[in-house]
Amino acid sequence: MDAFEIRMALVGYLRKLNASQGSVKRAVDHLRVYSDCSGDLWKCVMQETKKGGLNQRINILYMLDDLLCGSGGDAAESTAYRSHIAAALADFIGIVVPLEPNGVINLQAAIAVLENWKLRQLFSLQELDGLLKQLIDRRIEYSNHNDDTDDTQSTQRLPDKEILRRFEEDRERHKRLKEEMWVLPISTLSRDDAMNYHTPSPGHSKHHNLHKTNLLTLTADNAPLNTEFDHAWEDTSDYNEDDVEEMLDDMNNLHSAQC
User: Fold this and answer.
1) Is this structure's pTM higher than 0.70?
2) What's the mean pLDDT in 161-171?
3) How many Å apart are CA 5 and CA 57, to the nearest integer?
């Protein structure tokens, strides 16, 4: 296939894109196979996103999530698109969630995808935090506006058929996103490195002298270990009296067993 045929094939996949795994897979596989044309194909994705309706735009966002986070294919094939997405991330999200009344339809789904990308540290955390703050502020503003005015006509009602289709596709998209959130990227560290790995506590400098501290520098290769630590740090409660009592009980049980 020449460059024109590759581009037109992608246009066909994107225009037929829906929430089904088969539809998403066809588009993602095409992008991966022709990752050497990533720049041209990304321009094609942006153009089709601008042309599509709200449902088509959110489908494309979830397709990109599958491209970056889904299993299958070579990681390098997905990485080829990451720089293009990073450069246009704010503009792309602005297209998916436009500043218009009906734009709120895509608001929550876009927040879910960005939070997944933040968890996986795919892009600048500062930029992702900024985009998430903008979307969350819009959600709060929209909610407060509806509470104050009781205006049920703030958004244009979609046809019943379109609403039912959106329900079904949202269910499929959210199910797939939840499944992917449980799958962390695979670290490329050796077994010995992983066993000796220590994640620095929050506030600790990330610039380590390996010879002096024996700490591994956090890079794209061992970021999965950092993600695991972030999960544990958020889910673990502060050290308190209950922990002291539990340790004393364990010590007493151990002492009783030895007697």
Assistant:
1) no
2) 72
3) 23
